[in-house]
Design a protein that fits this description.
Order of helices and strands: HHHH
Structural class: mainly alpha
Helix content: 40-55%
Largest sheet: none
Shape: globular
Number of strands: 0
Strand content: under 5%
Length: about 80
């Protein structure tokens, strides 16, 4: 996998099914914006952004429903993400 889609808990050395929801959120975000949600000049910077869950907002030309679904999938706390 790409580090651009790495869930915060994976950075901390943990893994659960919630990581897959995070990665799906990253893919959906990139499908809408044509850019990955978390970008940086180096891995350390990327890890910091992922751990904060800070990504550029999705433009208002997209529905509030898709923006809500993506934002829920990209919650830093895995317990707050939707399940399959």
């Amino acid at each position: 996998g790409t580090p651009y889609f790495m869930a915060p808990e994976v950075i901390k050395g943990e893994y659960g099914h919630e990581c897959d929801i995070w990665s799906l959120g990253c893919v959906c975000y990139e499908m809408v914006t044509l850019k990955p949600p978390f970008r940086a000049n180096d891995m350390n910077g990327l890890y910091k952004r992922v751990l904060k869950g800070a990504y550029p907002p999705i433009e208002n030309k997209y529905s509030s429903d898709i923006k809500t679904v993506i934002s829920r999938m990209l919650r830093v706390d895995p317990k707050e993400r939707p399940s399959c």
